[in-house]
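Problem: given the chain below (273 residues), write out its structure.
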Amino acid sequence: MTATSPTTEVSRGGSHELVIDGLRAGVAGLEVLTGVDLVVRSGEVHAVMGPNGSGKSTLAHVLMGKPGYQVLGGTVTLDGEDLLRLAPFERARLGLFLAPQDPIEVPGVGLHQTLTEALAGRGMSPDDAKGSLAARALVEAQRVGLETRLLERPLNVDLSGGERKRSETLQMALLQPNIAVLDELDSGIDIDGLHDVAQRVRDGVAEWGLGVLAITHYRRLLSVLQPDVVHVLVRGRIVASGGPELAGELERTGYAAFETAARADDSGTGIQN
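Solution.
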């Protein structure tokens, strides 16, 4: 696919591809990702599972360009565009979306204002963005189980953990990105809420060909998302990939065998992390 300019809105239809090749990255002088290879395409759901400290959230932060993380090697492209050279807002403009593990409060900035600016940044006129959001936000709030009165709040202010996850999912649905990175969408939310947000993500796969990279500890999220591929991330790299049954195996046996094998590989190559 032809590379697109970061200042031009990417077509919301068609096929899109996020390619991670040999990604190495760290924070505070410590190498955390030691060589991640992964491809996510439109209409695909990929799950990444792994023990604490394996690099799952680091992967999400590096993909979106969070300050403080250093890329040490490898490449990341979206539709042929080099993401690693772009600012976070340019990555979003290309169609990359991150639902963070812990959405922060942004006092003084309303949800509608945030979304209007985001749509305008993708090429929609401010008037059209406002008009588009007014009715759609109400519909999407109902779909994810978010009380409509909370749409008038400053972004995430005084929202519970579950309400924040519903709000993040609503934002994803309104922006309709090409690729969504979900960093533990299932944390801090009850069972009913988890079903609501996971189903909305799954519907996005069918409605506009959303590609999903879901980071999680638990199979309960995947029972609704229905991943095409489950990846095991250990010691900063993917050590195994398989179908949805792999998540069940991990739930039964844990990560010990994968960690032992990865540690042995690291010892053989002299890698330390």
